[in-house]
């Protein structure tokens, strides 16, 4: 019996999109984003005052920056 289905390690719809292209990117950041940012900011020696008013997209970009700075994004 042959298998007509192929497997692929990538799942459809999971491609990384630029946060600026998110349809919900202008909405306030999520609770999990805020919590993770607080952790990353603490590890990087920064205060959390910069979190006020961040959008989902801005929070995602800041997470990427802080992951690189703290080594968590490895």
Q: What is the structure about, briefly put?
A:
With 74 residues, the protein is mainly α. The protein contains two helices and no strands.
Describe this structure in words.
With 74 residues, the chain is mostly helical. It has two helices and no strands. The longest helix is centred in the last third of the chain and has 15 residues, at 56-70. It is globular and about 30 Å long. The N and C termini lie far apart (42 Å). The model has no long low-confidence stretch (mean pLDDT 83).
Given as residue ranges, the uncertain stretches (5+ residues, pLDDT < 50) are: none
The tally of helices reads 2
Q: How large a portion of the residues is in β-strands, by DSSP E?
A: under 5%
Helix content: 25-40%
Strand pairing plus helix content: what structural class?
A: mainly alpha
Radius of gyration: 17 Å
What is the residue-averaged pLDDT? 83
- What characteristic shape results from the CA principal axes? globular
| Number of DSSP strand runs | 0
How would you spell out the order of helices and strands? HH
First-last Cα distance = 42 Å
Largest sheet: none
């Amino acid at each position: 019996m042959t298998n007509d289905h192929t497997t692929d390690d990538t799942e459809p719809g999971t491609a990384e999109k630029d946060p600026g292209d998110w349809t919900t990117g202008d909405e306030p950041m999520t609770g999990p984003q805020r919590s993770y940012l607080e952790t990353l900011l603490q590890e990087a020696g920064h205060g959390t005052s910069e979190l006020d008013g961040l959008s989902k997209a801005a929070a995602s970009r800041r997470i990427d920056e802080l992951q690189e700075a703290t080594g968590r994004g490895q």
